[in-house]
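Predict both folds.
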Amino acid sequence: MGGKDLCGLQEGRHQDRHVQGQVDPPEFAGRRVHRAAPYTCDQTTSSILGASMDRLNRDVYVAVVLLLFCGVMLWASFDIREPDYGVLPPSIWPRVILTVFGLLSVIYLVQSLKRGPDDPQAFPGEPTTVMGWVRYWWNPVICFVSFCGYLLLLPWLGMLISGMLFVFVLLSALGGWSPRRLGIHAVVAAASVGGMWLLFTQGLNVLLPTGELTGI
């Protein structure tokens, strides 16, 4: 029996009992009898779904979106053209990164489900003005703006220089602008991006985007 048939049968039985109950027995004659309003299957289903959604927190939705992103990108990686000469296929590294990213997203989802619902006091009233919204979401906004700048500079400066600038600006925006911190951010940006650039270009013979202005 389908779900709708079962719900319809239950509603019909409840309505029959309700109609029969409208004839007051003799012992209740003249008294006001409270009769409960008949329920519907749609109301019951909505209440169950609402209670289930209330037990989830925001991180659960973020983890699900990340898993969907990894799945779509992994599926798209199979459309990368394989070269005719004997080198490492260009689809290997995206798949490795997406696999690691997907595993981390699964761990993130499991931890979020174990944590339970959000504390009502954890997220105060969200801002209503543009500047308030920017201050409230400052870290995500600066990450997206920095990455867009990196993509715009990539054809002109190449992956090495634009990558170093991206990491330096992002670390400085999130970690502070003091002289000591700026020095640390510069060293981290040069070491991380420069090390990966050497690994791919010299160790794995992978061709990375070069800049029209820099030639590297």
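Second protein follows, with its predicted structure tokens after the sequence.
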Amino acid sequence: MERALKLTAVAQAQRVAEEAREAHKAELKNRKRKMPEESESDTQNAHALDKYGRRLHLNRQSASAARVRREVYITALEGSLNAMETQNHTLEKTVEALRREKQELNRELEVLRLHMHYQQQQQQPQTVTKSEQVAALAAEEDRAPAVDAGSSSAAPENNSEACGFDGWVDLDKDEFAAMVAAYVDTNDLDPSLFLDRDLEDGPPAA
């Protein structure tokens, strides 16, 4: 790109120099037309000028035009190169500023992505894995009280056997009924578990 700009600057300088040369040649021609005509007393000198001086005069015009063209070309080229250097320096500053701005925008974008990810995590339902569920059930079972094997939840076929008294076969019917009532009251049991017919029958035989 820099080479293309330099070539463009050279071409522009050449064009400006050529225009200056043509303008200078036209000015010399106009100046010659405005010169006063030679008097008759200078006829001999005039012929000499026609033979030698006119050619010399044309050579001088060409040299002058070429010199003007060269000076204009150099001036135009220097101006173009200076403008290119200034523009290049300005572009370098602009590129550096854009690079810093890009880095800042990338940092802000990363922060926004993290914030959006955090919000999505908060909005999603909390799922519990199977292993976590098993661990929670195991912990719940550890905290639960042990069930007494002799509790009333598994009542025997004969409700009177739920009392679990040792030596109750030696009690009579009234003593057995009193013992059962005390057991029900102490253990906060349902009295319906012990039917009247069971109490009337007394303790089972040995």
